[in-house]
């Protein structure tokens, strides 16, 4: 079962053009949502949360359209914006008083546990909090009403490495219950290396990756070898290829061909998520008979 299903969604404004976007977020896993700045990640998050209306297509959460039961659906979601949209004059105590009534499963004790963990004074005014402290408050609010789905838009932005690691550990702990699902949009790719099970990659208004991370990493490999062994036929088997004096580095789904031809004269490694994003981001779309694949740019 999928916690989120986005089907052929299109949305266009002056800054971006999302075209027939389709992907799913499987229940019980951490899905990383990546893409360059300005690619439309935050817009898609807002479309999912019904803060914007798609111009075509549909979005389902928990197998329902948001318009069918928006109050109950949103009660199941712990949503963390990239910024904290609360009255700066409120104290944290006042923020809880205003927010708690919207959730029938609000847990005061859980909220206070997070405040202690994040060293957030209950009576502190929001305007006195640093950017990092505001993000921690945002997370504490989202994680204190027994949500089933957590939608996190840049949740570790502004946090120092120690606190960021703590937040990621908390996200992992939430998944001890197999019904919990996390959809995390972030530009800090190292965060996803630590926690992601599934990956969605948005590029130029289109989804170019949408699969379990282990399947992606098993499919794509980085090959390094001597430039003089690389001809145009081999280049055509790469997603992206770059050459330097020391040799070539290529991303490919046909690593076995290179291995069969050159054996231990080539190095074959599993890519990191960051390398996938970089090389697929540089690649160009090639049409195949059954689906869209990605090939190397002209060198």
Automatic annotation (TrEMBL):
Pfam families linked to this entry: ABC_tran (PF00005)
Domain ABC transporter: 1-229
InterPro entries: AAA+_ATPase (IPR003593), ABC_transporter-like_ATP-bd (IPR003439), ABC_Transporter_VariousFunc (IPR051782), P-loop_NTPase (IPR027417)
Keywords associated with the record: ATP-binding, Nucleotide-binding, Transport
Annotated coiled-coil segments of the chain: none
Domain of life from the UniProt record: Bacteria
Claim: Nucleotide-binding is one of the keywords in the record: yes
Transmembrane parts of this sequence: none
Molecular function GO labels: ATP binding
Keyword match Transport: yes
Record protein name field: ABC transporter ATP-binding protein
Organism: Staphylococcus marylandisciuri
